[in-house]
Amino acid sequence: xxxxxxxxxxxxxxxxxxxxxxxxxxxxxxxxxxxxxxxxxxxxxxxxxxxxxxxxxxxxxxxxxxxxxxxxxxxxxxxxxxxxxxxxxxxxxxxxxxxxxxxxxxxxxxxxxxxxxxxxxxxxxxxxxxxxxxxxxxxxxxxxxxxxxxxxxxxxxxxxxxxxxxxxxxxxxxxxxxxxxxxxxxxxxxxxxxxxxxxxxxxxxxxxxxxxxxxxxxxxxxxxxxxxxxxxxxxxxxxxxxxxxxxxxxxxxxxxxxxxxxxxxxxxxxxxxxxxxxxxxxxxxxxxxxxxxxxxxxxxxxxxxxxxxxxxxxxxxxxx
Length: 320
What we know:
The chain has helices at residues 38-41, 147-153, 221-226, and strands at 2-9, 12-31, 57-79, 82-95, 121-122, 129-138, 157-165, 169-170, 180-182, 188-191, 250-251, 255-268, 271-280, 287-288, 306-307, 311-319. It has one domain (2-319). The longest helix has 7 residues, at 147-153. The chain is built from three helices and 16 strands. A hairpin with a 2-residue loop joins strand 1 (2-9) and strand 2 (12-31).
């Protein structure tokens, strides 16, 4: 980590930061008793590497993760009844898996347990760009000459937090079951339309090939509401192989949100009462959730819900 800070005068401070990390030997846990092509070699029946066992959940310290982020900040100290701070963050985070126990039988959802580095890509929590602006403004009591107005209108404080950030990454995959085309001898010679388990290892979680350029549209909210691409745009890979699309290739809907708080403290001798009103998502902007990335879903490509709908919260705090 490296940080540089400079005071500009008049309560202004500029700061630039870099935070980088590299981690080796991270824990990866998945079913290792499977291999690509199993269902092809054994005419649609999963035999596994060791046919005497079912799934074998095995943990290995083979994961790698990297993160590199920079931050630019400009802030004004609280003077003359207000303060303001703006932060711009940019960077990249990568790994093989971002969470544990998210697959079947308590193993991680790994495309090919024999080639973990293949799925090294953007981390699930990667945010390429983020702008945050927070401010506090207070109505000074001395602004009012009338004592009643001073008590009623003076001392109110308004706090705001604005967040603008790019979307989170997501993968396009298929969870459809293996549905082969067989010859007269029962040998697998192809896949039926809509078949999943593309690498034929008995685990229906696979990647297609990358689509043609210009087919995927993820630049606006309407793209995610209508569907960013048709499922047919993603080609099926060679029989028995994982697709070349890669993990977390696409970026989902961004986030824009403003939270506001109004507060005032009233004091009587040894007592004080603070009134607070919080408004989350002040302008009730629709922030879409991640789209459905499963090619076998009828809702593929669409975002069907939203995050952070507008809500209100009121509170009183008594001190004595």
